[in-house]
């Protein structure tokens, strides 16, 4: 079940989802997704799919494309930057 919390940053103010669910042992777990901002809003009261480790329900993620895709894109972006730096270093050492 989704609730909201208001967050203010230098770039502005936005609402970030606060999600609660009941794990397999009947315990209520509340968390905020690692990503937020424009495009990540969820309506209050909405039910959303979550995935979590059975032995550690505090390690949880929202199982929706816009939440999982963004994390993969960040990793891809930083991986490409590191690859570009490595290629630049190797190329300059071969030319020098």
Provide the low-confidence segments as ranges.
none
Find the count of extended strands (DSSP E, 2+ residues).
Answer: 5
Task: Determine the fraction of residues in helical runs and give it as a percent range.
Answer: 25-40%
Q: The biggest beta sheet, please? A: 3 strands, antiparallel
Oligomer: single chain
Shape label: elongated
Strand order of the largest sheet: 1-2-3
Mean pLDDT: 80
Q: Give me the strand/helix succession.
A: EEEEEH
Q: Structural class of the helices, strands and pairings?
A: alpha+beta
Describe the structure concisely for a colleague.
This protein is an alpha+beta fold. It is built from one helix and five strands. Helix content is about 30%, strand content about 35%.
């Amino acid at each position: 079940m989704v609730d909201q919390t208001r967050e203010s940053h230098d770039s502005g103010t936005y609402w970030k989802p606060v999600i609660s669910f009941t794990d397999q042992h009947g315990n209520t777990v509340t968390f905020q997704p690692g990503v937020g901002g424009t495009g990540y809003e969820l309506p209050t009261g909405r039910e959303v799919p979550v995935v979590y480790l059975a032995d550690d329900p505090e390690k949880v993620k929202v199982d929706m494309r816009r939440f999982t895709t963004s994390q993969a894109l960040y990793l891809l972006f930083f991986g490409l930057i590191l690859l570009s730096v490595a290629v630049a270093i190797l190329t300059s050492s071969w030319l020098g």
